[in-house]
Specification:
By secondary structure, the protein is of the alpha+beta class. It has a domain of 102 residues: HesB-like domain (Hypothetical Protein Aq_1857, Chain: A), CATH 2.60.300. The protein contains two helices and eleven strands, in the order E-E-H-E-H-E-E-E-E-E-E-E-E. The longest helix is centred in the N-terminal third of the chain and has 15 residues. The termini are far apart. It comes from Celeribacter indicus.
Amino acid sequence: MMTPGDKQMKPGFDGQRAEKPPEIDQFMRNATEIRSEGSDMSLTLPPKVTPRAFARLAEINASTGEEKVLRVAIEGGGCSGFQYDITLDEPAEDDVVLKGEGGAVVIDPVSLPFLENATIDFTEELIGARFVIDNPNATSSCGCGVSFSL
């Protein structure tokens, strides 16, 4: 039984109790203070980019002799309300840059929340080869996979 003077503990892997690092408590206090000050700061997790997508981007750049980034953006339109715009481009100053072996994928700050936790991949099928996005935020999408709704 813990007394008020005991340190906060959590179970360890060996069944022993391990001491909780003090940095965890400080981090949580800071996060609570930021939220309580009315800050609109929120954390948006960027999408994941598969090694296959980075490899294809590297192949494209090698064949063109240019070093372009893959830009993934969200625009209004399409048959479901929003559509993906995937292009080769130059990075902008305010882009989120996801680097990997073979290149980089950039996302503008407006599109980023729509792509939270999505996966950007490259696929080759009988109908063609293309970059695809598996977006857990989309509630529905059209048959071509280019447009979606939230």
